[in-house]
Structure formats: C-alpha cells, structure tokens
UniProtKB/TrEMBL annotation:
Gene3D superfamilies assigned: 1.10.3730.20
Keyword Membrane annotated: yes
Taxonomic placement: Bacteria, Bacillati, Actinomycetota, Actinomycetes, Catenulisporales
Official protein name in the record: Multidrug efflux SMR transporter
Pfam families with a match to the protein in the record: Multi_Drug_Res
Signal peptide as annotated in the record: none
Family label: Belongs to the drug/metabolite transporter (DMT) superfamily. Small multidrug resistance (SMR) (TC 2.A.7.1) family.
Keyword entries, A-Z: Cell membrane, Membrane, Transmembrane, Transmembrane helix, Transport
Transmembrane segments annotated in the record for this chain: 33-50, 57-77, 83-103
Top-rank lineage group of the source organism: Bacteria
Topology of this chain in the membrane: Multi-pass membrane protein
Main location: membrane
Subcellular location: Cell membrane
Length: 104
C-alpha cells in the first residue's frame, strides 16, 4: 500500500509544482488553491509512505515521479522544447525509479 500511496503522492507533486508556476506568485486564486491542495495531498502521502519505506528510496521515487510528470506536462501543454536527449534523460529517471522499486 505504501508504494501506491507514494506513486499517487509523486503525481500530486507534479500537480502542485505545475500549479505553482501558473499561480503568478500566488496572485491567481484558482492555481493557488490547486497548489495548496496538491501540496497538502503530496506531503501527506509522502509522510504516510515513509512510515514503512526507507527515506532515501521514498524521497527519490517521489521526486523522480514529480519531476518527470512536471516536465512532460510542460512539453505537452506549455510549449516547452522536446528533444530526443530530453526524452532519453526522462526515461532514465523513470528507469531509476523502477529500479529502486525492484531493489526494495
């Protein structure tokens, strides 16, 4: 169960990170509300998962999921540059996250 919560929590990290960028310094209510909700859910899920998972593994997986999803969102919806090198590097992060799960 901790792994499922950790993955969902990593997804929520991408939500709050994306909303933070769209909040215009907390001047836009909608994105700011999404940021706060995403942050609370993400941190609560991480805290729950780290009750049973090692801190290093849990944190690395959480950050990796959040980072990959945030970059992917930016490339798909915000016009960030897409390149083969960027996709290979993102795949490397995904591979590392999967590797940490397999080794656990």
């Amino acid at each position: 169960m901790a792994w499922i919560v950790l993955v969902v929590s990593g997804c929520m990290e991408a939500v709050w990170a994306t909303a933070l960028g769209k909040s215009d310094g907390f001047h836009r209510f909608g994105p700011t509300a999404v940021f706060v909700a995403g942050l609370l859910l993400s941190m609560a899920g991480l805290a729950y998962a780290l009750r049973t998972l090692p801190i290093g593994t849990g944190y690395a997986v959480w950050v990796g999921i959040g980072a990959v999803l945030t970059v992917a969102y930016g490339m798909v919806f915000d016009g960030e540059a897409v390149s083969a090198a960027k996709l290979v590097l993102l795949a490397g992060i995904v591979g590392c996250v999967v590797g940490l799960k397999v080794l656990h």
